[in-house]
Amino acid sequence: MRTIIYYISEYGFGHATRSIALIREILNTNSDIRIIICTNFSLEFIKSSLKEFGNRVVYRKKVTDVGFVLFKYSLQLDKDALNKACNDYLLMSGELANQEVDYLSSTNIECIVSDISPIAFEIGNRMNLPTVGISNFTWWTAYKGVIDSSINNEFKAMYKKMDHFIQLAGSMEPEFGRKSNIHCGFFCREVDDREVQRLRHQLNPSGNKQIVFIPIGMKIELNMADWPLWDNENCVFVVSSHMNIQHPNVVNIPAAYTEVQNYIAAADLVISKAGWGTVSEAVAYHKPLLIIDRKEMNEDRNTIQYLVEHRLCELVSWEQLLEIKISNVKYSPYKSGFMNNRVEITKKVLKIINEEVVTCSLSSK
Fold first, then answer.
1. Is the CA virtual torsion 274, 12, 243, 214 positive or negative?
2. What structural domains and CATH numbers belong to the chain?
3. Is the pTM of this model over 0.90?
4. Left if phi > 0, otherwise alpha if psi is -120 to 50, otherwise beta: which for 14?
5. Which of 254, 265, 329, 349 is deepest in the core (most CB within 10 A)?
């Protein structure tokens, strides 16, 4: 059986959910492939999402990168803490790479895929294995102007060892791919139409309210319980499982519920930070988007620019969101040309892997 190893960034569930979408497509269309998944924070969530594939998926609990560090109860970056965390990560990255090289040397790995952990490309370079990066950003870009440039340049050096780069909607990255650079759109997990209808009836049985989906992020802690926003009587608000909000108009997603894209598809409006995973699901399922404008986040700025240019969202500040009247929000009309490119991107990944394997076979003769 052919084997791929897939490194997934640590921050939140966004990298995990879009990786799940591709992994499902790869495994459903190719019965001779197994995938080793390497991450830490979202590993149990990924296991629950992929349990149908049994032993065709192997899980390795490893911290793959840093992500962001925020001040407690805030969406604001803690730059000092982030700088230290990145420096500490780089100090241990050599040992992590050594451990992975030792492990992979005993497996029949054909390709390394990363979304978008930098250490994956260091490992691939050491082992002369083909590498594929899939993302709308790199951590090097996310950290520019935020952490010390001498630290950040070490992340850039890892990304420059990437062979193929599939850049997603909103990407403004250099063409890091040494062999190819491919630009794609949005993609996400499929929804279950019957489940979407069940959720709509459960959340809004009378049919006279708007369902408003507000995910904030599984690594973000905010004190939102007393917000006037929840007093919009014409709405039912759906929030993440970890958000502690006791209000008759607020419903938490059950903690064990993994297919959150069904809630997005059931919603009439999505209010979110510019996390690519949530945005892609909202765009793919044609949902009006109200995006929280975080100007200090490079990744957010690029995604927001893309959404605004294509008239896919309206913007709101954090302060405005506290007391916003939902009936007064102007919703940008969605563009029907934007769709779920999951199948197309999967084909591109598999084409790269197949071509690399053939090249390696010929060069070894």
1. positive
2. 2-186+341-363 (3.40.50.2000), 193-328 (3.40.50.2000)
3. yes
4. alpha
5. 265
